[in-house]
Amino acid sequence: MKKNNKCWLVIYLPLTGFDIMAHIIVDKDLCTRCSICAKVCPSGVIDPADEAHLPQVQELNVSRCLYCGHCETFCPSQALVLDLRPDEKILLPADAGNISSEDIAFYLKKRRSVRHFTREPVPREKILEVLDIARYAASGTNGQPVQWLVIHDPEKVRKIAGLTIEWMRTLLNTPHPMSGYVPMLISAWDQGYDIICRGAPHLLFAHIPEENPIASIDATIALTHFDIAAPAFGIGTCWAGFVAAAAMFYEPLQKELNLPTGRKFAYAMMFGNPKYKIHGIPRRKPLDVTWQ
Length: 292
What we know:
- By secondary structure, this protein is an alpha+beta fold.
- The chain has helices at residues 36-40, 70-73, 101-110, 124-134, 154-169, 182-190, 215-229, 241-249, 251-257; strands spanning 2-3, 6-11, 22-27, 46-47, 56-57, 80-82, 147-151, 202-209, 236-239, 263-272.
- The strands form three sheets. It has a four-stranded antiparallel sheet with strand order 1-2-3-6.
- A hairpin with an 8-residue loop joins strand 4 and strand 5.
- The longest helix has 16 residues, at 154-169.
- The protein starts with a strand and ends in a 20-residue tail after the last strand.
- 26% of the residues are buried.
């Protein structure tokens, strides 16, 4: 069908969480029939354009669409639009997001695990800005299974650290791999040193569907996006391995965090305003690459 001089290629998609009729909208005045949309489609569901036809999707192929948006984002003339929350479409200005190889190298090499934080909280609005970037992280079949739990209250962060220590006490004198390691952590805690969350004011948990076998990788990718983007907003981060382990296995902590039914923890990250600035780059092992 046609509307406002645009050809609407109608696709019915069985998208989890979306009870909608999805469309690829092609503006015939902008479409150059280059067929890049068909070439970049990961599922190969778009038929290339020819002199008589705009790009199209055959009905028998619509169920294979991942709704990844490659067709829209790679279109050089911006003739394609996905009709999925079109009001959220972000216009990409010329040269926006371009970073020199030197700048990106220094930015990533400067990244540090922060373990000293100020008491000043990070505003919720700023946290949401970083999480909004993280939602663009890659995920298997574009499933986007990752959801977030932010512990913003420093007192609750402290309580979670205490519950993590409680879990560690249950590992003493057991065959658990951490049994010989936890006594010094417990001792430090008992002496008043927060060895678990390092005084971070906030915690971030990524959680995923219990039955999704690949979602844990998706969560790691999404958390990495948060970890990498955070310093640009003045936020320091550190992967919270002890808390993540306790959240996966210790029922009292699970009850405290109270995830929705059917969800499980993937990993956790502590974050806040860093107390100290970074002034250098440390050494690392030499690069080890095998070519075949």
